[in-house]
């Protein structure tokens, strides 16, 4: 269980049904290789999305979000997000590359039709921390056999804890496929700048169980 003495972490998701609910779909096929673990060769991310990066935005809310889950392991951030991230010296995202919005689909009838802000693509760093298996409730298809990537299929998650944090603010954790993880400093940054379309779930409360398998063992 996290205490004040230990850093806390949060899973970063899009805030669906918010006033800034926005999604992105890429156009065309500009797909590269998927990254692999330098020790065991397992895939540690999705195939890279290469330039030219173009696609369509869908606006479900009334305003464009500052954060949108992107294609593959990448994510898309508004210019407001990118500027504030750089000014405050947060870490774990780099190489912000422009994304060309070819078209905006609106799911609501709005009195105004503003243009979207400039958006930028970035892939969070892999390996900023590792899952602490003994203090996590993660169902795995097979035992972890590589201590670096800790890559396995994960059918269910009912809370998890991290170890070996390197201090980055946004990252993919070893042994935790799927969503990026963020630091407490990142959460305060989001609140201070009122950045939108982000849902931040404490890792110990994060549940992912699409097959309804239930928790592996009692509460942590
Ligand atoms: Zn490995």
Structure commentary:
This protein is mainly β and 220 residues long. It has one domain (9-208). It is 9% helix and 30% strand. It is built from two helices and 15 strands. The strands form three sheets. Strands 11-8-12-13-1-14 form a six-stranded mixed beta sheet. A six-stranded mixed beta sheet has the order 2-3-6-7-5-4. It has a three-stranded antiparallel beta sheet with strand order 9-10-15, with no helix packed on it. Strand 4 and strand 5 form a beta hairpin. The longest helix has 10 residues, at 184-193. The chain is globular and about 50 Å long. The model has no long low-confidence stretch (mean pLDDT 92). Bound molecules: zinc ion.
Q: Could you give the topology of this structure?
A:
Layout: E1 9-14, E2 22-26, E3 54-59, E4 67-69, E5 75-78, H1 79-87, E6 97-106, E7 119-122, E8 125-131, E9 138-139, E10 156-158, E11 162-163, E12 170-174, E13 181-183, H2 184-193, E14 198-202, E15 207-208
Parallel strand pairs: 3-6, 8-12
Antiparallel strand pairs: 1-13, 1-14, 2-3, 4-5, 5-7, 6-7, 8-11, 9-10, 10-15, 12-13
The structure holds zinc ion.
